[in-house]
DNA sequence: AGACCAGGTTTCCCCATGGATACCGAGGAC
DNA sequence: GTCCTCGGTATCCATGGGGAAACCTGGTCT
């Protein structure tokens, strides 16, 4: 974690993006953007995620100040996760990214098909 | 790769982002945005990347239609990688993301420190 | 007392990513 | 001929992320 000579885009940025854009973060974030959720609410909302991964994701997001963990001292204690102001600032960038993905998915699919075809051809008649 | 029931943000989008925002893509992309580069130019520009990883990154980006591989039939054949028009459309979203990262890095660092401190305290006096 | 839910933690395991290293064929440079 | 560069491919191995599943500590219900 030493900050020696860094090149463009720096490991620091990359690491941050890895923490915030990892496999389940986007789903969790998009869920928490609509309303605060309890742990098992999130599990039900994102059935594919395992407890372990959800816990890890929430901890990571919490550590980076993107979500808050609130222990509600009601009768049997509830845990409520909510997005922070900092977390909210993350939406626009993500939305831009997802918009790009949506808009260009067809072009990308075409590119992939073309690439795979070329590859296959070169394997056959190469 | 079957498209069964998908939830918000879809695996499709996630997978795409994984392909395009992986460890070395940002560096390669930022390099190719300035000028077309040959393989070993890229290696020299991004010394940390290994041949294997650079090859993999370029193939992946090529497959997704983001960069082009051009075989220049000069005397000893050169390979020139350049960004495609589709690839260029990727810049704004990435820039927005990096701008977010830069702008909020201090807040995030503070959040991490606070989190780590809380954790340590709870381990000590828990 | 037994069953059940919330909110996890822990353990085990698999497999994909990535680094390091070696090799390789073609084409100059000496 | 010998060495170097270019543009890779092939191989080995370590690390780590993520899934499955068990366990656990409350608290409620009945």
From TrEMBL, chains A, B:
InterPro entries in the record: HTH_HxlR, WH-like_DNA-bd_sf, WH_DNA-bd_sf
Domain of life: Bacteria
UniProtKB keywords: DNA-binding, Transcription, Transcription regulation
Domain HTH hxlR-type span(s) in chain numbering: 10-109
SUPFAM superfamilies: Winged helix' DNA-binding domain
PROSITE patterns from the UniProt entry: HTH_HXLR
UniProt protein name: Helix-turn-helix domain-containing protein
Keyword Transcription regulation: yes
